[in-house]
Amino acid sequence: MTAKCILVVDNELYIQEVVQIALETINNWRVVTASSGAEGLLKAEKERPDAILLDMMMPDMDGATTFQKLQANPVTQTIPVLLLTAKIQTADQKRYQAMGVHSTIAKPFDPLQLPTQIADVLGWQL
Fold first, then answer.
1. Which of 6, 87, 110, 123 is deepest in the core (most CB within 10 A)?
2. What's the CA gap between 69 and 114, in Å, rounded?
3. Distance between CA 94 and CA 108 in Å, rounded?
4. Which pairs count as long-range contacts for 65-73, CB under 8 Å and 24+ apart, including other chains?
5. Count of H helices and E strands in the chain?
6. Which pLDDT tens digit goes with each residue over 36-89?
7. With the C-alpha atoms ordered 13, 83, 1, 126, is the resulting torsion angle positive or negative?
């Protein structure tokens, strides 16, 4: 089985590191990181990851705008996007569903449970 590739788009470097360590150590998945929405768009098109973990609150280009641009690009529109966000109120969840986001993982998250959460949402076997 080929290792999954996950693109993590988050402006907070320590979040990128925690996610990367968790996914690479626990599941041997390959992790690509981006620190902004613009960088995430470029890496999504170049790397074509199996899934994208996208932060909602980033400077310059927020997660919603980044998601819309991913959906508008034929190369990236089929990549599942999971939001990694602290904004998980009911109204936020409804907005994410209306946008067409695959799922949401709440911050703070348990790094040891993160691979299982991602695999469960995407129907991947661990």
1. 6
2. 25
3. 20
4. 65/37, 66/9, 66/37, 66/40, 66/41, 67/99, 67/100, 67/101, 68/99, 69/37, 69/41, 70/41, 70/44, 71/100, 73/41, 73/44, 73/45
5. 5, 5
6. 999 999 999 999 999 999 999 999 999 999 999 999 999 999 999 999 998 888
7. positive
